Input
Amino acid sequence: MLTRFAGVVAATAALFVFTAVADGPDDPYVWLEEIDGPKALEWARMENARSLVVLEKDPRFATLREEARTILTSPSRLPLGEIHRGAIYNFWQDETHLRGVWRRASADSYRNGKPVWETLVDFDQLARDENENWVAGGIVCLEPEHRHCMVELSRGGGDTSTWREFDTTTRRFVPAGFALPEAKSNLDWFDEDTLVVGTDWGAHSLTTSGYARTVKVWRRGTPLPDARSLFDGETTDVAVRPFIDHEAGTPQPFIVRGVSFFESEHYYAPGLDTPAKLPLPRNADIQGVLEGRAILTLREPWHYGGSVYPNGAIVAYALRGGAAELVFAPRDTQSVEAVGVGETGLVVQYLDNVSGRAARITRSGEGRWQLQEIALPENGVVKLISAGGGTDAALLSFESLTMPPTLRYVTASNDVENVFTVPAAYDASDVLVQQRFATSRDGTRIPYFVMGKKAVLARGNAPTVQYAYGGFLSPTLPVYYEDPSRPQHGALAGKLWVSRGGVLVLCNIRGGSEYGPRWHQAGLRENRQKVFDDFITISEDLIRTGVTSRGKLGAIGRSNGGLLMGVVVNQRPDLYGAVVNGVPLFDMKRYTKLGAGASWVAEYGDPDTADWNYMSKWSPYQNLRGRDVRYPPVFFYTSTKDDRVHPAHARKAAAKMQALGHDCLYYENMEGGHGGTSNQEQLAYRIALEYTFFARQLMGP
Output
């Protein structure tokens, strides 16, 4: 138990408290905000040494690590890919390719379930050849040929990256080709000799969030500084980026000006002439272009042309003439999650009461949009893997917490073929998954999933791990496995936790998109307490119904979910026996000054304004209390290279908790970006740490 290490905790805290006071009267730990500061790194190394020995010496750790590693590097995972001109392109990591390999196979061999892979980029070999800690990022290719590509590389996995041109025909990086220096850049292809780029152009070229505010046209063979300016946003914007759809080989260029994290203005720039602003609502996203119509998803009602298009709907907007047409309007229980634009129609992935569905939507000659459901199993997660790429075929997957993913190839006529089936990572024959509902403080019904062995659920009072995210329109779905994988996914939770008698709970609290944009909007800014109330309500429901008890209930969250963990630990420390808090937001007074925090004001509020009146009531860092409150043991983890959510949040949280006399463990990986890890080995190690921590606190020795 953590309590036996209280003396070490106090000694470590005292060492650094003594040296910290002079750094600032309001925050004695502000020195931990210096990412690579010698004192901050030394503190992190000491915390690692103190904490890791506790978890690594637990007799369960080595087995948990090997089980996680086997799942994460299994060659039997689905080789998910994108369809492009008769080929499937896939990024793959396994025990041989820890950093990953980008490869392709013919669509015919892939469709037959026996893909013949051709390696394009081996990122492990590239890192060895260049003696760099390269981590693979995005890949942007010129359509429809998919020959000219830009490949993103970052050192250690951060958001700051470099881009290089790659030729998929020669399978080589292009000598003297397009290359962007390290920055937080975005780009897209106009034609084979032209990129549209947003990057750090020098003084005053970035937003206060640290992203590009100026987009330029860069011609092949010309120096990057000579690129022609196309659009300038405001310094107060979040970011400005290009989006170019190549419908039937014709480029359709858009500029997306991110006014806030969720609100955008869209500009149309045919021929890369002066961009013209489109009359679209700010809470809308362009998914692609079909037959001259921009396909939009709405996150607010749109009053246009004498009609009202509902929140959450899909709308087609004619780029010539400006006519709008309603394509699909989801019901109250439904939420559009993904839209793929094919050659002649759309493939839509949506939720209905948090259960996955998919449909094909086409436009008739009379202008009517017609929906045809795609036949898939019920009560699981449907993912749109690929649609478009010069075809009307699509790739869809289906899975659940107990059912391994299967990949389906959907033909243009909606015939469904099973392509790949993944072997089970654990024995789920006696595992039960139930969807339940709890009523939050304001009367809203909140769904959640409970997963456990039938006998364990029948007996009750089980060690339970409760997960939620609750923000940024991101739904919490009962997936079996996905990359990058997380401890709450069915394969890992089933093998490492449920098979040992534990229970997993996934919460669909407000802030996500489980019921469309309205579910997200219900928990924004001054309404954020509703998100926290939802999680606490489910915790109370688990205890009331006998699933678990206060000493056996654990909670886990990361990033925005780490903020959630910090709040519920402060507001209801009596409910939980252990908490894992990963790459968290924690100091909400200073979050806009740390990492990419300034871009999230639309989600939380601005602490430098009157918003602090409500934020101060739940900001975890400012609300930590002393020994008069008995907090549950907390395990914090972060990454030095996380340039999205600054590692100082976790550092300061751990330092302050220890100084206040509370037990906590801390792990800081020195690479890995916001994911916290840069390869599958590191991920297996950290997941084993997390479940070892829960096992020690909730299951006992």
Summary: Residues 1-25 have pLDDT under 50 and may be disordered.
